[in-house]
């Protein structure tokens, strides 16, 4: 058994508006909002690292959860935009928190990485106690270049989200999760060692629109829950239009899918935890969901005891 003790988040102070990006891609600011639901996003300074963003989110999560860093038994960090091939940010974040013995695991998966992290934490918490799961992304380093790609440059922001999963206490119990992968679509969404993001937007949206509702409904059916009984669906914040499609496919009003994409853009694997940090205290039941490069996708159910 495992429980969610709390969430935390951090976003940089610099706000990048649609007006600023519109001049770079030869479009109207209103077009950006229409195709994505995004009005602004946050970008970090060039010298800020993935580990630095992750540490700030971790400290916020620890403070809000009433947990001391010394009580963390395992650190899991997801990032698809790490500055180097290896090591990832997990060990560096653990060190900055004063943890030099606790294991630290990296999940180099964009968008769906923190859903994987929460699912792993559920299974590992009985062994390690408190598991700190962090998603940290600096997507501006990938897309802020000339010429800016009008299809991807408008979407992404920087930030980090964090969650503590505990073996013995927390406000929400993690009931169950489903994780799925299909490598058939690797070329539809990827980031190479150099260059910017390659994305076939039509394929991504079509597959996400099918696969995420299927995982959510399978998870709810397996646990004898109705979609209408869920207080919040907290999904990776990829695109507001996609969120609306998935809500319709699940059979609930779009308002049940918490959204902050208008303020932060798509922060890849950080987005789900940033969103959860803003709404989780209002809910007795939450269904988390994510879809990302791989393709990897899935859902996780948590509810108050």
What features would you highlight for this structure?
single chain; 305 residues; alpha/beta; 14 strands; 27% strand
Give an overview of the whole structure.
This protein has 10 helices and 14 strands. With 305 residues, the chain is an alpha/beta fold. The strands form 3 sheets. The protein has a 10-stranded mixed sheet with strand order 5-4-6-7-1-8-14-13-11-12, with helices on both faces. A two-stranded antiparallel ribbon has the order 2-3. The mean pLDDT is 97.
Per-chain topology:
Layout: E1 3-10, E2 15-17, H1 18-25, H2 29-36, E3 40-42, H3 50-65, E4 72-78, H4 90-96, E5 104-107, H5 113-128, E6 130-138, H6 140-143, E7 158-166, E8 172-181, E9 189-191, E10 197-199, H7 201-222, E11 232-235, H8 240-250, E12 257-258, H9 261-264, H10 271-279, E13 285-292, E14 296-304
Parallel strand pairs: 4-5, 4-6, 11-12, 11-13
Antiparallel strand pairs: 1-7, 1-8, 2-3, 6-7, 8-14, 9-10, 13-14
Helix pairs in contact: 1-2, 3-4, 7-8
Low-confidence stretches: none
The main sheet comes to:
10 strands, mixed
Q: What Rg is obtained from the alpha carbons, in whole angstroms?
A: 18 Å
Work out the helix count.
10
* Helical proportion, percent range: 25-40%
Beta content comes to 25-35%
Shape: globular
Total E-strand runs: 14
Biggest sheet strand line-up: 5-4-6-7-1-8-14-13-11-12
Element string (H = helix, E = strand):
EEHHEHEHEHEHEEEEHEHEHHEE
Which whole number gives the mean pLDDT? 97
How far from one another are the termini?
12 Å
Structural class: alpha/beta
């Amino acid at each position: 058994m495992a429980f969610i003790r709390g969430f935390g988040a951090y976003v940089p102070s610099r706000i990048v508006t649609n007006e600023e990006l519109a001049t770079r891609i030869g479009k109207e600011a209103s077009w950006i909002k229409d195709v994505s639901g995004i009005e602004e996003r946050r970008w970090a300074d060039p010298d800020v690292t993935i580990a630095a963003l992750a540490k700030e989110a971790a400290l916020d999560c620890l403070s809000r959860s009433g947990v001391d860093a010394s009580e963390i038994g395992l650190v899991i960090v997801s990032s698809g935009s790490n500055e180097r091939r290896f090591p990832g940010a997990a060990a560096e974040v653990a060190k900055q928190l004063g943890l030099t013995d606790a294991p630290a695991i990296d999940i180099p998966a964009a968008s769906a990485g923190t859903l994987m992290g929460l699912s792993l934490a559920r299974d590992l918490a009985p062994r390690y106690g408190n598991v700190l799961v962090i998603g940290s992304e600096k997507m501006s380093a990938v897309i802020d270049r000339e010429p800016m790609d009008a299809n991807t440059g408008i979407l992404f922001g920087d930030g980090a989200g964090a969650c503590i999963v505990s073996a013995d206490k927390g406000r929400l119990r993690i009931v169950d999760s489903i994780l799925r992968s299909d490598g058939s679509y690797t070329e539809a969404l990827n980031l190479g060692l150099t260059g910017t993001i390659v994305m076939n937007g039509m394929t991504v949206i079509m597959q996400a629109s099918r696969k995420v509702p299927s995982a959510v409904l399978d998870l709810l059916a397996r646990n004898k829950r109705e979609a209408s009984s869920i207080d919040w669906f907290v999904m990776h914040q990829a695109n507001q239009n996609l969120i609306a499609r998935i809500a319709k496919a699940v059979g609930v009003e779009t308002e049940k899918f918490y959204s902050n994409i208008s303020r932060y853009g798509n922060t890849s694997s950080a987005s789900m935890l940033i969103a959860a940090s803003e709404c989780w205290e209002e809910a007795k039941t939450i269904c988390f969901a994510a879809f990302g490069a791989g393709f990897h996708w899935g859902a996780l159910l948590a509810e108050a005891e």
